Automatic annotation (TrEMBL):
It comes from Nocardioides cavernae. SUPFAM superfamilies: ClpP/crotonase (SSF52096). The lineage of its organism: Bacteria, Bacillati, Actinomycetota, Actinomycetes, Propionibacteriales. It comes from the Bacteria. Belongs to the enoyl-CoA hydratase/isomerase family. This is Enoyl-CoA hydratase/carnithine racemase.
Amino acid sequence: MTPADLAAVGLRLDVDGPVATITLDRPEVRNAQTPAMWIALGEIGRTLPDDVAVVVVTGEGETFSAGLDRAMLDPSAAGGDGESVIGLLALSDDEASARIEEFQRGFTWLRDPRFVSIAKVRGYAIGAGFQLALACDLRVVADDVRFSMKESALGLVPDLTGTKPLVEHVGYSRALEICATARVVGADEAVRIGLATGAYASDELDAAVADLVAALVAPMSGVVPATKALLQGAADRDLDEQRRLEREAQVRRFRAVAAALG
Ligand code: CAA
């Protein structure tokens, strides 16, 4: 997609060597999200250069994202094509589910082992905003962060791939409480419960993320993806399966290191 195509759906993509930065760029509506934005995010994932090692996702201005654009729930603005959220009502259950799967692809690619994804989060991350942050491997936040899974307040469930990572990070009971009550999770709690890896003063957040990015691109090519692939899903594997994957990955690493040493 061209920069103009991305701008039309409120996104910016900057690729600088091994680092890609995706910015939600609709600050006038607090970076509210639309289906067109989710489809474009999926397209970014499909077309990202192979040598990108870190993807940073952030929001323009003081708010990461206010979640779903409320205009998408306005029946008077909706077509029956599934481009709006209310437009899903015109589809059969199977068609609506397939359409939501397309939306979800805007989020799932951020888990690809070939890079590490980081959500750099300032201010509000509500609903779809919270879920976009959850789609990333790491969340690094400003001390004014306000996560809220607000779907239940609208009579909806979180459906943009956020429920699994939320349970993995904070556990079932805490995840249920956060989703069902739609309450705000601030910076200190986010770090304490494992939702964020670090919280920083707002004016120090960019530098903290830049340091993290530098540390992630420093290791020999291929080792961070191999490590991510190993750790991802480790909790779902038994010990024998996990240690088999460790052995196989290590043999590949031994060969890669030996080849690099010549
Ligand atoms: N959709 C569309 N426009 C939005 C928006 C949203 N989600 N959130 C904010 N805006 C707009 C406001 O209408 C306002 O526009 P105007 O200047 O034209 O009046 C502008 O952004 C600024 O908003 P505020 O003055 O409210 O900004 P704030 O900084 O004081 O507050 C906020 C920020 C707490 C995020 C507040 O705007 C808010 O609560 N927004 C709604 C959040 C929400 O309920 N999102 C839906 C979550 S559920 C979800 O995402 C569902 C899903 O995926 C299925």
